[in-house]
Structure formats: structure tokens, C-alpha cells
Amino acid sequence: MPLGGLGEVGKNMTIIEYGRNIIVIDAGTMFPESDMLGVDYIIPDWDYLRDKKDLVRAILITHGHLDHIGALTHFLKEFSAPVYATRLTRGLIEVKLKRERMLEQTTLHTYAAGDVIDIGPFTVEPYHVCHSIPDSVGLGITSPAGLVVHSGDFKFDHTPVDGWPTDQAKLAEFRSRGVLALLSDSTNADQPGSTPSEALLNDAFHTIMREAPGRLIIATFSSLISRVQQVVNVAQRHNRKIAIAGRSMVENTEMARELGYLHIPTDVLIDLDQVDKVPPRQVVILATGSQGEPMGVLNLLATNGHHSLRIQDGDTVLLSSHTIPGNEEMTYGVINRLFQRGADVYYGDQAQAHVSGHASQEELRLLINLLRPRFLVPIHGELRHLVGHAKLAHELGIAKGDIAVVENGYPLTFDGERMQIGERVPGGYVFVDGSLVGDVGPLLMRQRDALAQSGFVTAVARYDRRAGKTVGQPRIVTHGFVYAPDAEDLLAQAGDLVRSTASVKRGTALATVEERVEQALSDFFYQETKRRPVVTVAMVEV
Ligand SMILES: [Zn+2]
Ligand SMILES: [Zn+2]
């Protein structure tokens, strides 16, 4: 059953259940949309698992991107099952667990491509896949019902940065055993042809490092370890030193160097505060914030808010990333401000400084043909991606009835012969807002939206219930609706309205009076301004 990542891009999570045994694959986060005010990120809804806690045998992680590990700390606060991850992925997870002070109480196992691990009735076989982060795996999971292959995020890159292509031999071996179901990445199912190799980026990096007249600031995801390696390799050829900016970039590169997944010679690396001592033409700064995130280095540079770095004449900024849908506004805002500060900025397709880590149509076809699964379940993608993937599989001869295009929460049952799509398990968005997890629901979201649209007005008055009227002058407070000093008249009228509306039959309940006044004020403001601010009224009994 998919619990996340189907019908959306992000917060991936799938569970595989056999008898009284459950394996969880990935636990990722998703970026909020721009109308989800105040939400930091979204995690999968795993309510289905809450009364099956004892059945969860393991959490298997395919790779270290946030849409696969971002929700793990939240998950582990509720479930104590052991986590399996490859070395680099484990390193990235440990960084997160340390931050939350959860490292000690978590059981972590390292697995590697080629291992065969028995977990309850399941045999798990991770196999190597190419992706935009090293040490990614897909999973072969055998249960008495048959072999299920979960592709993870993958592409077939023949010249990957780490020289380790997707393991086609293992896929062929799976096929020889017979594959019951393939769960395959659909992120790029609408892209014809094959995804270009990472190697293609070397040209773009060479060109920009040759031509940038001063410092070069390259922004990318801190988890794109392969991209960081490429930048380092090319920078060395151009005699440029590397400085690293942004907490997650510093932590991740340190960890990846320690584990041997990232090679930066010590004399190439300089401290961020040492940058000014090196001629600008010999500097590359690797930075966070390619999505325009408020706390990312790029935004801090754009707003002059970084503690040690400032944009200076001759700076070139390169966004080596693709903007995740929903983040465009923030990203372009940051780009505009960087231009304003005098930097030259390269971004998007024209920069040619990003290739996708996901398989395009030809590669999806290749995976299906290598495995020839009995059933196909497109995973990782919006509905349009899942449907596109299904069409493509149908063209390759898989019957429509053997392909399950489903969104999160639909259980798929395989008895070795047939596939059944069951009733959807209820679920929704679980918002994380600071330390609030799941407490922020759709109702609160609508209230925040109303506040953001028109602000609020609060009226406070002392109230004599026996007399049935207010005592003294009500106090009117407003934020984000009208600028109070300029709207004295309007607010004075509102005060009068509070007094007149609150004059009711003696002994009326306070709540009733408050409600009545709220309604009257709301109507009054709408009549006067054509806006409906959020109105609250507090009567204090005297
Ligand atoms: Zn990924
Ligand atoms: Zn992913």
C-alpha cells in the first residue's frame, strides 16, 4: 500500500504486508504549496500503521534524498523498528537523528547493493541504481506471494559521476526468477527519450568557471553529493578553491568526505571566512538555497542577511538545480534580488547546469523489458505521471488490468495470480509547522488564509450582564486590515456599533452577545470596505 508519493511529488512511503509482518519503504517529506501558510513541510499519513505497530519489522531506505528520509525522525518517534540504509544514506540519516538527539535509541543497520537479508517472511535484496546521489538502491523483496521489485529513484546513466551504473545483471537475474510486481519511479514519465548523463554537466561547469570574471557561487541541494563532486573536480582544473556555505551543505559534505563518497583535497578547501584572502577568480562557493528557501544561503545573500558573505561586483551565481513546482515564486524572487545586488545569475534551462536523476520514457521501457513483471504499479509522481507510465507499459504489452494506477492509501493485494485494488484507507496531509506535527489541519489553514487575505479586528469591552449593556468605551484593535491612525472614523463607528449591538435583554449569555456583535461588525466592515477581516469580540463581565 502506498502511503505517500502517489498522486504527488514527494513524501514517499510504501508498505509491504504479508501475514502479520510489515516492511516500510522510505519515509520522506514534501514541500508545502504556496497557499499552505506557515507549513514547513508535509509528512506521509501513516495512521494505518498505528494499530499495527508490533507488525512493523523494518524500515528500508532506498537513498538519502529528503523525499525519502525527511520524515524518518517523525516516524521513529512512533515506531521502534530497525532502519536499513546504505552507508552514505545512513550517514545522512545520522546527521538528522543527531540533530533531534535520537541517534542512541535508533537501531540502524547498514546494507549494501548485493546483500541478501532475511526479515521475517521477506528476503530483501538491495541492488545498485544510478541517481543524483551516490549509494542509491532499488529493492527486490521476496515473500511467499512472489518477488516484488521497488525501483527507488533511478536512471540508466552509462557515465555516472561515481562510475557505477545501474545493476542490469541483477535485474536480469530477478527476471529469471519471475517478477510478480514492479513498483517503478514515474517522476519523468512525461519526458521522451533518455535522461542525459551527469557527465553532460561537466561542459557547463567548465564554461562558467572559465568565463566567470570573479567569484562563482553555485547553489544546489546539499544532498546532491555527486553534483558537489563534479563541481570540485572541475574547479580544480581551473585552479579555483572551494568554500562551503550553509549548515546542511557543511554537514553533508563533511559526512560524505569522512565516509569516502566525496573527494575534496584539503588544499582545495578553504574556510568561508578565508574567501576574501583569495583572488575572486580563484573562488567557488558551494551554497544552499537553490529553491529560494528563506534560510538558504542564496536568499541570505539576496537580502544581505548572511553573517559573513556579501554579494560583490563580479560575482556569478549559478543555480544547479531544477525548481520544484510550487517554489518558482520564491526562487525567482531571490534571483531578481541577486541581480539587483549586482550579481550575474544563471538558472533554469539556459544554464544547462542540471540534469534530472530520474528515468525518462526510454529508460522506463528498458526497466519493464528487463524485468517483464506480471503486474506494474507506477509510483513516485502526480497522477499525470502515473497515467503516462501506465500507457507506456501498456504499449509494451502489459494488459491494462495488470497495471494499477492508484493514489496514496489504496491497498493492492497479490495472491500470486491476481491483483486486487481494495478500498482506500482514509488519509490526508500531515503538516509540520515548527514543533507542531499534525495539529495544523485544513480548518486552521483556512483561518490563516483568511487572516492573510484581510487581517483581523478585535473588539474588547467590559460588560454588565444584569444591565444588558457594555460599560465604558470598547477597545478596537486591528492588524493587517486597515492602518488604524488613518481609519479613526471607521473604528470609532465600529466602537459605537459594539455598544448598540451589545445592548440586549438582561441576563443574555455572554457568548450569545459576542456572536451577535461579531456578526454585526463583520457585516459593517464589509459594507464599508468590501473586505471581511477576521473579527473576534471579547466581553469581560464586570
Ligand atoms: Zn531521489
Ligand atoms: Zn525521490
Oligomer: single chain
Bound molecules: zinc ion
Poorly predicted residue ranges: none
Structural class: alpha/beta
Q: Helix coverage percent of residues? A: 25-40%
The largest sheet, given as strand count, sense and whether it forms a barrel, is:
6 strands, mixed
**Adjacency order of strands in the biggest sheet:** 1-2-3-5-6-7
- Mean pLDDT comes to 93
Annotation, overall tally of beta strands = 25
- Choose one word for the global shape: globular
Number of helices: 16
Radius of gyration (CA) equals: 28 Å
End-to-end Cα distance, whole Å, is: 59 Å
Strand content: 15-25%
Briefly, what is this?
This protein has 542 residues and is α/β, with parallel strands linked by helices.
Describe the structure.
This protein has 542 residues and is α/β, with parallel strands linked by helices. 31% of the residues lie in helices and 23% in strands. It has 16 helices and 25 strands. The protein has a six-stranded mixed sheet. Strands 8-9-10-11-12-18 form a six-stranded mixed sheet. A hairpin with an 8-residue loop joins β1 (2-4) and β2. α4 (87-99) packs across α8 (247-258), α6 (201-211) packs across α7 and α15 packs antiparallel against α16 (510-529). The model has no long low-confidence stretch (mean pLDDT 93). Bound molecules: zinc ion (2 copies). One zinc ion binds next to loops.
